[in-house]
Amino acid sequence: MMQSLGNFLNWCSPLKTPELALKICLSCRGRRRGRQIIVEEHVRSVPEEWKTTSQLDNLNLSDLRPQYRHIDALKTAPEPVRRIFTLKFASDNEKYEAKYLEYGEKLRKHAYDNDSLEMQITRLTIDIRRLQEEIARMTYEKKRMKLKLQSMIKSRKEFLLELRSRNYEKYCLVMKVLDLKLVFDPEYDMELTPEARSIAEMKLRSFAEVQRIKEEKERKSREVSELQIQIFEKLKSGEITMTDENQS
Fold this sequence. Notes:
Blueprint: H1 2-11, H2 18-24, H3 28-41, H4 48-52, H5 79-84, H6 92-107, H7 117-137, H8 143-166, H9 168-177, H10 194-237, H11 244-247
Helix pairs in contact: 6-7, 7-8, 8-9
């Protein structure tokens, strides 16, 4: 028993706390807790500024909370009363909502715009930065949160590309207001296999054939319409007449 205890103390040497190691040895739960402490001590280091800075630092805490901004009485209320309803006493969710409305003043199309590409990108950007701050302050890594962050960044990139194809001026405004930088995926030089090359050529030939048939149909329909117009003009000018036999 003492020998196994000594081996376990050697295994727990990074802890440098024999008393804690002795308590951990008493149960399986304790062993798991000890391993969790070791994992927390040997996590990947993150930049210190990520732990101290936040996107809410430049938020004006003297402004009213979003749900009380429509009340006119608070604008003329005494300062002690008004201070209770300001962002200084707001929760984190209310502060992030105020940040969303602050961006919305510059990007919204109208007062109730929450579904446009600009506002969806704004919402995703705020959530991404909030999750990045949480991951930076964590003492251990969670794969689930990293996967969620990657999914959100991918969705925002798709929205940005779609907005750039629709309205380039709005795209530039969103990138400037949110302080974003769109990074494209690297272009990989890949050699196609003979099978893939033959399939690609077949797709190109089929597409060209479909386009040719479509153009041929359009040309014939255009010729028919032009012929009908000529006949109608001749009938109108009296160059030709329609007999009863032709009408029948």
